[in-house]
Amino acid sequence: MIRLLATRISTLIATLAVVSALVFGVMNALPGDPTLVILGIDSTPDAQAALRARFGLDAPLGERYLAWIGGALTGDFGESYSFSVPVSELIAERLPVTLPLALLAMVLTGIAALALGVGAALHHGRPGDWAAMTLSQFGIAVPAFWLAILLVLLFAVHLRWLPPGGFPGWDDPLAALRALILPATALALVQSAILARVTRSSILEVMRLDFARTARAKGLSRGQTMRRHVLPNALIPIVTIVGLQFANLVTGTIVIENVFYLPGLGRLILQSITNRDLFTVQALVLFFATVVVLANFLVDLAYILVDPRLRRPAAR
Prior knowledge:
Blueprint: H1 2-29, H2 34-39, H3 45-55, H4 61-73, H5 87-122, H6 127-141, H7 144-158, H8 173-207, H9 210-217, H10 222-259, H11 265-274, H12 278-306
């Protein structure tokens, strides 16, 4: 068990190191000069050189990477060109929008997917199964941004139940949650369609195994068999998808936040790309990549908790 955890943690650290090097290398290989964006094309070479020296852009690439990753380990990602504040402050300011949005979308995804997946499996081959799978196929085919526009037209423009965009802040929690309902729903409907199909397939596969049929033969009801035997054994592929979907929900906020004009990390990264704000873009790309890597790491840990066979020493 300890050796398995040590292996997973060492793999996590090595992966993050490779990801950071790739992010830094790709961002610095892109064409264009940030100093020209800030000062303009009519600026003098002396002014450009002074600005490069101020931000450390005149140092060799390897030296800049070591300085950047050393600062990142302490939470210092440099100073934003376009906002003239530390990048870490920008991330700390925008994270309370993006993280609750992703968490709310994950909760909605789990509720909708389990309801559709379990219901479809229990009514396999009947109209309820066909309706659930047709609905999930529609969810997979529809882009999240288009679905977001439809939700705004229906619930904000015509029904006027929810705000069409913007974020009032967490001083009024109820208003903040109302502002996140539509974007979270737009994110969740697409992801829940995928998870519902996986849930249905996993449950049907387990229900056909001998131990599930034996439980039914011993007199357990279908609901008891589902709760005690089928769902615990069907969790492994579901856990895999849930872990990866949370990473997709966080990165999916890049588009959704711009549709709903939310001041989160997704909107910040597009603003930074437009302004050629190198330090901010580097930090945000590293953040989103780290979320994906950590999601995979947590899925590995969830495997150990869900499947007791992984906690046993390998047979010699």
